[in-house]
Structure formats: structure tokens, C-alpha cells
Amino acid sequence: MGQARRKLKIGTRGSKLALWQSEWIKAQILRVHPDLRVELVRIKTTGDKILDSPLSKIGGKGLFVKEIEEALFSGRVDLAVHSMKDVPVELPEGLVLCCYPKREEPRDALVSRGDILLEDLPARAKVGTSSLRRSAQILHIRPDLRIHSLRGNVDTRLRKLDQGEYDAIVLAGAGLKRLGLSRRITQYLDPLQVLPAIGQGALGVEVREDDHWVVELLSFLNHKPTELAVRAERAFLRRLEGGCQVPIAAHSALEHGGLVLTGMVAGLEGRKLIRDQETGKAERPEEIGLNLAEKLLSKGAEAILREIYGGHP
Q1: Which of 54, 100, 214, 241 could form a disulfide with 227 if both were Cys (CB 3.0 to 4.6 A apart)?
Q2: Strands 203-208, 79-83: pairing kind
Q3: What's the pLDDT tens digit per position in 159-216?
Q4: Is 86 a catalytic residue?
Q5: 54: how many CB neighbours lie within 10 A of its CB?
Q6: Which residue segments constitute the domains of the chain, with CATH numbers given?
Q7: What is the largest CA-CA distance in the chain?
Q8: Catalytic-labelled residue, pool 48, 78, 86, 155
Q9: pTM for the model
């Protein structure tokens, strides 16, 4: 390692979960490179500033990463730690995802008052989620439930549940586990019924493409099975041109040497839902994602997407 650089600055959002994730990355770096100084730089993103509207209403891409990417370009930070489900499929030119640490729990988790399971919630129970993907799939299973928008950090969402504003809420299982809140989970939602978001449970480290020192320094953090799975999921999403306004979900994992990708596209109310699976060679994840997207488009997803985009220009 050259003498010129002994300090590394990590760009991160300021939420408790984002800080946990960045502190974890910092600890891994210092374990392998104890002579480095690693500093966290907190950056407030657009998604953090606007908390009174559903993400699908705000529109745009990169709500939780744009300001951090600007800090990367300016040299204010050397790397950014993201939840992969927040990262747009198209990165700005000059930035790359250099590593994907081992994925945490990918499933969604239901937290309910009285620890009542999803299938046992009373009719018209009020369920909180900020995700159209979650609401569409839950309504597909339980059209009698009432879905209401829920924004804010994990603590805020749990507090609103505890205060009786909701009967149940749905959160990413990974976030609850990382924050030591597994005890709050009523049930993990079966991916056969509720598929997670693209990249859910996975972290991504974004750097400047030409910063070869940082790219090489962080290479030990990459977990190849996670990388392949997330690349397949993101290729699926890229072909469908999905964002926060569309209920699209996918999850991929290595099985018997191959990569299995399951994907879903749904209408906003959950009445229409198309789901399928594609298996292929693990070393060709983008091909698997593209093939699955084409399969869903041919089965009716194209009509669903056209209807949604028509209503949400």
C-alpha cells in the first residue's frame, strides 16, 4: 500500500440502519487493513428529507443514493455503502459497484400487534408499508386487508405500530436482524407468496471506477454467490425498466451449481399478478435475468406495466 493514502472515507446515510451497515464495512476493512484510518461521512439524501409522501409518489430514481454519489464524484468520500434495493440499475458513468458482501436475510418480515400471522389478521386490518411491491402481493393474498403508506426509519415504523396506528407492518427482515430486533418479527413472509425486492438483504459498495487503489483494497469483501444473485435480479429489473412506481420483485440463489431466479410483476391492486422462474449457468446472471423478464412480458406483464406507466407518467 502506498504511503500517500492512509485514510478512507465512507459515505453513508444517517439512519441507524445505514450507520450499522457502514460501521460493519468499516470493521471488515480494519480487520484486514489495520493500518488504515476509516471515517464515516453522513450524507442526507432526498429520500431521507421527504418523509410525508409514499416513495411511489415522489418519483425519480436514486432517491437514497444521488447525494452520496455526488460526494463520490467530488472526492468528499472514497466509497459508499448502499442497501442494494435502493440502488438504480443504471449507475452514473464513472461509478461502479466493486463488491457485494455476503447477503443477509432476503425475506420480508411481518410485525403485528399481538403477534398475529398474516393469514390470521382480521378482515380490514390496517397494514403499513411504503412499498407497492409488498402491498400488491399482500393484497393478492388478502384482498380484504387495508394497506396504508408507512415511511420513516425502522424505529419510527415500529413506534407507530406500537401506538396502535397500524395492526401490522411489513419491513425487510435483514434490517430488523442487523439492528438486533429479530424478537419483534411475527413471521417471515414466504417468498412463494411475497417475493422480496431486487437486491433485498444485500449491500453494495460503490466507488469511482478509476480509483484502482480502493477497488483492489476492497476486493476481499466480495461474496461471489451474492454478486451473481444480485446481478441476475438487477438485469431482470433493468429489462422491465422498473422503479418505485411498479410492483416488481425477484430473488435469485445458487442451487446445485446453477442460478435460480424467481420474478414477479403485479398490478397496483394485486388482482393481476404474474410470476415465473428461470434457471441458468451461474456465470451468466444477466442472461438469466433478461430471459425471465422476457418470459414474464410474454405472459402478460407488458400489459400490466403499460397500464401502470400510463397512470404514472
Answers
A1: 100
A2: antiparallel
A3: 999 999 999 999 999 999 999 999 999 999 999 999 999 999 999 999 999 999 999 9
A4: yes
A5: 18
A6: 7-102+202-222 (3.40.190.10), 108-188 (3.40.190.10), 233-311 (3.30.160.40)
A7: 65
A8: 86
A9: 0.90
